Amino acid sequence: MNSSLEVLGKINSFQDAFISYGRADSKAFATKLYDRLLKEGRKVWFDQNDIPLGVDYQNQIDDGIEKADNFLFLIAPHSVNSPYCGKEIELALRRNKRIIPLLHVEQITEEIWQQRNPGRDLSEWETYKSKGLHSSFPNMHPVIGKINWVYFREGIDDFEKSFAGLLEIFTRHRDYVKQHTYFLAKALEWERNQKQSSYLLTGEERIQAENWLKIRFKDEQPPCEPTDLHCAFIGESTKNANNLMTHVFLSYSEKERAFMEKVANSLRRECFTVWTNLTDINSGTDFVEAIYRGLEEADNVVYLMSPASLASQYCQMELAHARTHKKRIIPVLIKEVELEQVPPELGAIQFITITDPEQEAQYHDAIAKLIKVLREDAAYHEQHKIVLAKALKWERQKRNPSILLRGYNLRQAEAWLKVAKQRTQNSSTPLQEEFIAESLKQPPDASLDVFIAYSRTDSDFARKLNETLQIQGKTTWFEQESIASGVDFQQEIQRGIEYANNFLFIISPNSVNSPDSAAQVEYAMSLNKRIVTVLYQEVDPATLHPGLAKVQWVDFRKHGGDFLTNFGELTRTLDTDPDYVRTHTRLLLKAKEWEQHGRDDGFLVRGKDLVASQQWLTQTTNREPAPTDLQLEYLAASRELPYRRVKRRTVMLTGLAVTALVFAGRFFGLMQPVELAAYDHLLRLRPNEPKDDRLVIVGVDVDSAEMIDRSDRYRLGRGTVPDLALSDTLKALNRHQPRLIGLDFIRDLSSLPELTQTFKDTTNLVAVCKGSGTNDRGQMKKGNKAPTNVPIERVGFANLQDDGGKFLRRHYLMAGADPDYCNTMNAFSLVLAQKYLEGKGIPYSSPFDPKEEDFVRHMQFGKTVIPPLWAPTSGNGSGYRDRGDQLGGYQAMLNYRIHQGDPEKFVPIVPLKDVLENRVPADLIRDRIVLIGLVDKAERQADYWNTPYGEVPGVVLHAQMISQLLSATLNGRPLIWWMPMGSETLWIFGWSVVGGFVVWWFRQPRFLAIAGVVSVVTLYGICYFVLAFPGGWLPLAPALIALIGTGAGVGCLNYYLRK
Fold this sequence. Notes:
Structural class: alpha/beta
Protein name: Putative transmembrane sensor domain protein
Strand content: 5-15%
Pfam family, one: TIR_2
Domain TIR: 13-133, 244-392, 446-592
Oligomer: single chain
Keywords: Membrane, Transmembrane, Transmembrane helix
Organism: Allocoleopsis franciscana PCC 7113
Mean pLDDT: 90
Number of domains: 6
Low-confidence stretches: 1-12
Distance between the termini: 54 Å
């Protein structure tokens, strides 16, 4: 700001100081002071050098005072008593100049008077003295007397010290004072040119002036105050920039005109724009219509209430119109009135009282209250005014759609309306609500017909042109209507140019020399906009921007300057090739949006729009405006769109998203049923294995049960197998030297002595107990104890962990002991396997740590590790999730051994009847683990379980579990294993990406189908092979879901991208 003012100051011959002095006393001193100031680099107005010959010296003096930052008054008797110096002081006061009095001569002596007046009588000296002409004090101007002086008395004061003090005053608030001078000069120029709008401030200069006017000095006096002319000039500049809208409409009686002007000046000083009938009604306009428009386009109505204004027809008309449009009315009582005379609408409003204008303190307090009220909810009332003015304009132009709100203005109005509807006073009018509703019905981001570029000095002509274009149904971008306060000015200008079909430039000397206008032309040319020029004022063609010079202008000076005749020629120009130009704008906007979003394919044209755009492109040869490079690139990309696909990164991100969803489903156990179903399916497809010759089952079948029932010997005793029958069976088996005998019966009842003794004698017998637990209905079920004479070391629990519905896939190896019923942690199968392998010299390592009271390591037989489904060291893998106590204890997966497609045929099963009748070969028993259990499904206590292969007796399941442990340890048969959760997630993500890239790569449906089938078969084959041979359980269902899901997702993205 300061640098720009300094440049302008040089151009306009601005001065740092004006020296006012009396020649008789101070000419020599003034000359000395002038020379010293020049040496200090100061510019000083001095009459000895600054009044050319042959000019009106008074005009030169006045101009010097007005264009000087400081008014230096040399106090001496001659200057104090000089009428010419008095005029200079008065002008400096009227212009509110910073006045710096310099005391030079306090008084002159008789000798000095006689030297200046030789031959004059001494009595004249006495008369001279009686008039106070010899001294600086009697006739001193009162304002000069109130200001601190700088002492330059010759022979008394130190000149250099005083001069340094003077320079310090110059420096103090220098920028503020220079702006005061500059804006005063501009205001005087405006005033002397009939206050034409072309002389008002515009652009950045206006904003700087508004900011300068707002400066206040705290804890110190201002160096100078703005004049009323300053305030009026800056206020009119603000008003002109805001399409003649104001902050305050002053309603008053003509009888209080002087007081109204005082209030108006006070408001202007506080940066409020004011509408009065004295300043805002142009000659030749309808008086009432002008008043109505002033009311409608003002934020507030300040009503100066007095008996005269209450009786004034015009004042009451103004108030009625303000109430109709729900304006904020602020009554200011300036003379006492009868309350009966006050309209009820005003009686409910708190008055601001200034009943004695001569009381300055009361006046200033009242003005302060008025300003406080005006600033309350100022933004709301400003928006109320803006929306009302546009709505009225829309209504008066027969609801012309070109006036409807768009873009930022519409969003702002919509937000304002929500607030307005909640207010009880000054709320929205029905017209405002209807206007906003109609605006919201318009398609968003619709293009505009015309962007109007102009210099603000040509605002009157530009406003008239904008008004007429809108009447003709043209949608326009006009700065004073289209830029809201607080938004990025340059960004909104460029946005307006982009959205306009035509760039209309008003040519005048000011516009062609404006940097802002040149920047707008450059931007319009960069977009290949159709440029239409209107010649408003004569210019030198050589000064035109090249982009404007090549365009034939519409000369509005022709036809005697008849506006409407020349406007018709402009309309014909604008209406040339409208469809072509609109398509140019539409495609430009789409191309810009495409570029702003990183050339995202989602912003390309498709279908019928693409066909129409291609047709337009074929018409662009030798036509204006030509397509831009960006438009050509945009259409080229759109042509390629049907053959395009999402980016590889998008495929990866889609795969990642699908994997995340699958992971979440697995984590919360939602996918466990489908994973187990897939596992069962693959399990059933595995090849057969040979029988396990380490085990044999003695089954209690139908024939055995009938034989026992018929035998007289076995009538005594209780249980599934009577005591004596069980005793005989154990004895018969032991005669053939089995390695171990496992009794898969619950025998918690008292036994006959013979059976009790047999239990005691059979040291290779392992019995079962059953711990307490809950059934499928959640009911508590008590456990069952082991036979009394079997030590706990040879007892294992018979509890099995199913997946609901007695469906068994898991091997329950260890669990917490039940002291009341089953005080062992080891499963029946684990005890038998452990003892068998001990006999082979293979050590056993328990995973349970008594100190920690938890499973802290893996179970191990020799070097063979039994992987748990859940343990702190291995985490949670496989298709099972640890929900509740589902994976409690130590569990592994049960790797069924299948022979001839049946899990019951992997070991020999001999009937109990054959054992009792001694018809079982000894080789079938010797050195084997013999399990005794029910195989009769019809038996009331039948123990059958569901498996992936169908129903299987419990004793066979125990045999499968024992065989699993023995085969893994002794033969290296694989146990079922799985990957950690992280590895499984990577596996799923890998297949997810495969599915995505299959769809991404193959475009033809036939090849896509083949690739999809190959992918699914490959996944299926890998999962089957790994399970069938190494025994690995890979997630088939989650991987398949991820593969299909990502493929479908990429397919949808490609579809939407192309459509």
